[in-house]
Here is the input.
Amino acid sequence: VDGEVVAKYSLSVDGVYYITGYDGGTNTLVIKDGEAYISEASCPQNGSDVPCTKQGKISADSLLRCIDCLPNHLRVEIVGGNNEGGLII
Here is the structure.
């Protein structure tokens, strides 16, 4: 959030996590079966902006390795390789 690491999670552990971003904005991060995605966000979904909930799933072995929510100043990013992939938020 705003360039600061606020959490780290393993992709090998399923879970649902609630992240507070800029100005109290919230995102719900889901990790399931080695993939991560944003299921809900408090930011508005308008104009040509692509909401973070529609950016899809990321995993350690996929080309897409991050999810951004610009209104909430949030970035979810995979670090590590295929066998040790984890997320930083």
In short: The chain is about 0% helix and 45% strand. The two ends are 7 Å apart (CA to CA). The mean pLDDT is 86. The CA atoms of residues 17 and 84 lie 20 Å apart.
